Amino acid sequence: MNTRRDYKRLGKTLVAGATLSVFLLFVAVPRSQADGRGKCQRNMERAEARLDQAIHRYGGNSRQAIDRWHELNAERQRCWNQYHAWWGVQDHRWHDERDWERYDKDRGWHHD
Questions:
Q1: Between the N and C ends of the chain, which has fewer C-beta atoms within 10 Å?
Q2: What is the Cα 108 distance to its own chain's centre?
Q3: pLDDT digits (tens, 9 = 90+) for 61-79
């Protein structure tokens, strides 16, 4: 009789452990993705600030501004590759379409 009770207790413990594991998995994955998106957002904000600084200091068509623009696009591409989204610093939102060329053109930043 004791063995049957032990198996029942073991079964309940395993079910509870599995349930807890699944719960923790669903809580941890979105948090790590949010942390990663936050890093992408900060990197794009810094890259855009460096671009703005280069434009004001050297002009929009300067080598410095063009280099900073390419760095900003590289950050956007990194975020896009990881999260299929990029952060629009000007409009303070995540974009889910790879349309940053239009975004830059609207701001007068487009270089080929």
A1: C
A2: 25
A3: 999 999 999 999 999 999 9
State both tokens at 95. 């974009």
Contacts with 50 (C-beta within 8 Å, 6 or more apart), sequence order: 68, 71, 72
- What is the tens place of the pLDDT at every residue in 21-65? 656 566 554 544 557 899 999 999 999 999 999 999 999 999 999
Q: Got the DSSP string for 14-54?
A: HHHHHHHHHHHHHHHHHHHHHHHHHHHHHHHHHHHHHHHHH
CA triple 76-81-82, angle to 5 deg: 100
* Structure tokens belonging to residue 71: 């760095």
Residues 6+ apart with CB under 8 A from 53: 68
Q: How many CB atoms lie within 10 A of CB 104?
A: 17
Asked if 75 contacts 43 with a C-beta cutoff of 8 angstroms, the reply is yes
- Structure tokens belonging to residue 59: 């002009």
